[in-house]
Amino acid sequence: MRSWTTLALACALACSTAFAAADAAAQQKPEETLKMRQGLFQAVKTQFGPVGAFAQGKGDLPADAAMRAENLAALARILPSAFGKGSEALPGSNTKPEAFTSPDFAKGVEMLGTRATALAAAAKSGNADAIKAAAGEVGKTCKGCHDNFRKE
Predict the structure, then answer these.
(1) Residue 17 lies in a domain
(2) Low pLDDT (below 70) residues in the chain
(3) What integer pLDDT is reported at residue 24 of this predicted model?
(4) Residue 3 lies in a domain
(5) How confident is the model at residue 1, as a pLDDT?
(6) Would 95 be classed as within a structural domain?
(7) How many domains does the chain have?
(8) 2 within domain boundaries
(9) Cα pseudo-dihedral 98, 104, 106, 109, rounded to 10
């Protein structure tokens, strides 16, 4: 019985935190939203970079590859809040304005989370070929959005 109570409390806390984060993002100034977006993309790069390098034969598999992939999936869940109204055309933004309204962009962010979760599962298996394949899918997802929604 105690585990159900703990689970219920954890779910309530997670939900309230998610709503608070969404509310805070909605109240941010556009410049703050841009800074958040840039920070999130830097975090995506930091988490995926070593695993992607391994997949391309440019480095060793990080010991924490599964954790990095799980972090990447969590970042994908946060990313939509970094595209708040008013931050579409700020100086210093590398995002094309159409990303803010494109269903393809939204699908890409969702796919990033899905593929990062698959990468985490592959990393936990320890199968190098599966990790490389899953990392390749994450890389394709990132490239798709960069090609279509990132300014030159």
Answers:
(1) no
(2) 1-26
(3) 52
(4) no
(5) 45
(6) yes
(7) 1
(8) no
(9) -110
